[in-house]
Design a protein that fits this description.
With about 375 residues, the chain is of the alpha/beta class. Among the domains are: about 140 residues, NAD(P)-binding Rossmann-like Domain (Rossmann fold, 3-Layer(aba) Sandwich); about 70 residues, no CATH class. The protein is built from 13 helices and 17 strands. The longest helix is centred in the last third of the chain and has 27 residues. The relative contact order is 0.20. This is UDP-galactopyranose mutase. Keywords: FAD, Flavoprotein, Isomerase. InterPro entries: UDP-GALP_mutase, UDP-GalPyranose_mutase_C.
Length: about 375
């Protein structure tokens, strides 16, 4: 008899498994894939280069709690991610910053002057409801066309005018020369990779792992008291309200017989090519190797569910599943797929730590009732 059956060995499931096992709970964690780590899984390819199988995963957080928690399972390599965009035949920093504007327009503006420049380009949009509104309201139509529209259409197969404002609101516009992609307090990569971090996280003797396993095949066979489900919530309920749409990525890897391919970890292609970006892993990992490995990302509507599509009608479908979930006893839904929300890695960890606290309180309450 397991206390908890957990589906999915990514961040959501693994953090909960580790926390619950530390409380003396017996945990079985299953995954349909043949490895732990979920989408953060990394491994050494046949040339000995550490790559991320499901695209670049760059860790960053403002949460000291999350960073301290993960630090129990890994040392860190400081790393600040930088992204260039291929725009008008030039490579310029993304997010848009002072350098981007000066390079694109052949100017030599100061920070104060670029504020006025962007204000002169901006077109007021009220109310701000869509991703298009967010960008045009901030930087105007010209920069919207250069940086956002084409990239968004490739990524989502939708025009920014059809997407929730949250999509482009994630990408700021800066008036200084800060060319870091993220500005979080903690920015680092697991020193020996994500998979090694997950191995340590799941090493507790109270945790049993079953890979290559569909939980539906074992859920009625293996006794357990409660279920923590990190898969697609619509799949759990047999798609009774319809299928929640996702975008996926077709990753195409190349190993090149050269030391370095590009100047930064990632280069975006907002308007040219069918792929959205190219990432070179050695920038991220700091690995020294005479060859290098890159990955092209081609967005697609088929494949593993990576990105919940943020549109009002999709949220309404999810809300119906959420109501069912709340009425389902002894089952917890969590993670990006379980709650149909785009989370960064640190946000998933924070969500799992919060769910652990909730479960702990509920268990204490159950014990109090039993003792009365």
């Amino acid at each position: 008899m397991y206390d908890y059956l957990i589906t999915g060995c990514g961040f959501a499931g693994s953090v909960l498994a580790e926390r619950l096992a530390g409380q003396g709970k017996k945990v079985l964690i299953v995954d349909k894939r043949d490895h732990i780590g979920g989408n953060a899984y990394d491994y050494y390819n046949e040339d000995g280069i550490l790559i991320h199988q499901y695209g670049p995963h760059i860790f960053h957080t403002n949460s000291e709690e999350v960073f301290r928690y993960l630090s129990k399972f890994t040392d860190w390599r400081p790393y600040e991610h930088r992204v260039l965009g291929s725009v008008d035949g030039q490579l310029v920093p993304i997010p848009i910053n002072l350098t981007t504007i000066n390079k694109l327009y052949g100017k030599n503006l100061t920070s104060d002057e670029v504020v006025d420049f962007l204000a002169s380009k901006a077109e007021a949009r009220k109310p701000v409801l869509t991703s298009e509104d967010v960008v045009i309201n901030a930087v105007g139509k010209e920069l919207y066309e250069k940086f956002f529209r084409g990239y968004t259409r490739k990524q989502w197969d939708l025009d920014p005018s059809e997407l929730d404002a949250s999509v482009t609101a994630r990408v700021p516009t800066r008036t200084n020369s800060d060319d870091r992609y993220f500005t979080d307090t903690f920015q680092a990569m697991p020193k020996n990779g994500y998979t090694e971090m997950f191995r340590k996280m799941l090493s507790h003797p109270n945790i049993h792992i079953m890979l290559n396993t569909n939980f539906r095949n074992i859920v009625d066979l293996i006794p357990h008291r409660k279920l923590i489900y990190t898969g697609p919530i619509d799949g759990y309920f047999d798609f009774q309200f319809g299928k929640l749409p996702y975008r996926s990525i077709d990753f195409r890897f190349e190993t090149l017989d050269q030391d370095q391919y590009q100047d930064t970890g990632t280069v975006n292609y907002p308007t040219s090519n069918l792929y959205t970006r190219i990432t070179e892993f050695k920038h991220l990992t700091g690995q020294v190797h005479h060859k290098t490995a890159i990955v092209y990302e081609y967005p697609t509507g088929e494949g593993d569910p990576y990105y919940p599509i943020p549109r009002k009608e999709n949220q309404e479908i999810y809300n119906r599943y959420k109501k069912l979930a709340e009425e389902t006893p002894d089952v917890y839904f969590t993670g990006r797929l379980g709650t149909y929300k785009y989370y960064n890695m640190d946000q998933v960890v924070a969500q799992s730590l919060a769910l652990f606290r909730k479960i702990t309180k509920e268990s204490e309450h159950e014990l109090q009732i039993q003792s009365v």
